[in-house]
Here is the input.
Amino acid sequence: MPGHHRVRFVNVPATPSSTYSGATLPSSPGLATPPSLMASPLPAKGYVASPSYLAMPPLSGSQVNVHPVLACTLGYGAPLTWDLTQPVESAQVRTGDVLPVTEQLVIEPATTPKVASITIICERLPWAITVNPTDNAPWAAPYVTVGDVLYTLYRTLRLPVTPIELGLQADPAFQQRVQDAYIARYHRITHPGDREVEKAKMIKRVDFLCEAQMFKGLSLVPEGIPSKGLPPGVVWKLHVARP
Here is the structure.
């Protein structure tokens, strides 16, 4: 029975989700204008609504909420504190007490009402992230759970960036910031052998966050992305910030 023990996210068979191209987000003050979302090298997995868990007609912004632990509150962020360059096991939940991510938390629905798929976009990333239920995971359910969101974010941000993908970023200054983030990330590894292994893996998608590597929560994109068949209630914006 799930309880309050720390959950482990290793050895879970899953394929990180594909992305959509052509959607953009407005820039926040002080942030460089992000590139348009581009196609993923992974096989496409189109959004499929579940009649069991996604209400018809599509949900409006007033009808759907993200789990409180994942929700971004203006000026505060989210109760979940997580350096996205680190494994999910390092995340902490601050709701009075400081707790790890537990077995009970990861099985809870990521949204109310429950949905079969969500898409996460971020102004710092040229990829969108589709979160589907994770087969054979301890938190597996026929709808998206908190565990699905955390695990898919972790796995997808660790995909390698191809030279073509990096070259599509037209701003040389941004390319250098990504390179600097990659160098800083592997230099934080204390064991020399592990550091060299990570260095050899080159730039990963998480490095596109540059200095803004802290998870600050998700907020609804009220209109969805109609051009990609994503209705209101299933598209969420990932907020990040400097440590």
User: Anything to note?
Assistant: The beta strands are 65-66, 80-81, 92-95, 97-100, 111-112, 118-121, 129-131, 214-220, 235-241. The chain is about 20% helix and 15% strand. Confidence is low (pLDDT under 50) at residues 20-57.
